Amino acid sequence: MPFYEFLCQECGPFEERRSLDEPREAAACPRCRAEARRVYSVPGGKRTDAGLSGAMDRAEKSAHEPEVVRRPAQSGSSGHEHRRRHGRPWALGH
After folding, report:
1. Helix (H/G/I), strand (E/B), else coil: 79
2. 24-51 pLDDT tens trace
3. How far apart are CA 26 and CA 7, in angstroms?
4. Four-residue CA torsion sign, 25, 30, 36, 42
5. Mode of pairing for the β-strands spanning 35-39 and 12-17
6. What is the DSSP letter of 20?
7. What pLDDT is attached to residue 18?
């Protein structure tokens, strides 16, 4: 039996489990027992976690307005020293 979403004018939204034969009938609000109408919404799909959702939002935004990111300048050193300290010492740099 699927869940259907209803909206009570006094208490707000709630869900109710119903058979497939009675989805259109009004439901009684579980709090105030008033008649509530059914709300039609997009079916719930797989939810993404907050980190992935934020990354996807940033990627979509950057498609139209790229975000400029710069590394803060290190005082007293050039960028070449940074490359030599990290990475593989046997690899040649470009």
Report:
1. helix
2. 788 899 999 999 988 887 766 667 788 8
3. 10
4. negative
5. unpaired
6. T
7. 84
Number of domains in the chain: 1
DSSP annotation of 5 reads E
The whole-angstrom separation of Cα 47 and Cα 57 is 14
Q: What's the pTM?
A: 0.42
**Considering the domain boundaries, does residue 57 fall inside one?**
no
pLDDT for the residue numbered 8: 92
> What domain range includes position 20?
3-39
- 31 within domain boundaries: yes
Cβ-in-10-Å burial (0-12, 13-18, 19+) of 7 comes to: middle
- 23 located within any domain: yes
Q: Is residue 7 part of a domain?
A: yes
**Spatial CA neighbour of 31 closest among 10, 52, 48:** 10
Question: Quick check: helix, strand or coil at residue 83?
Answer: helix
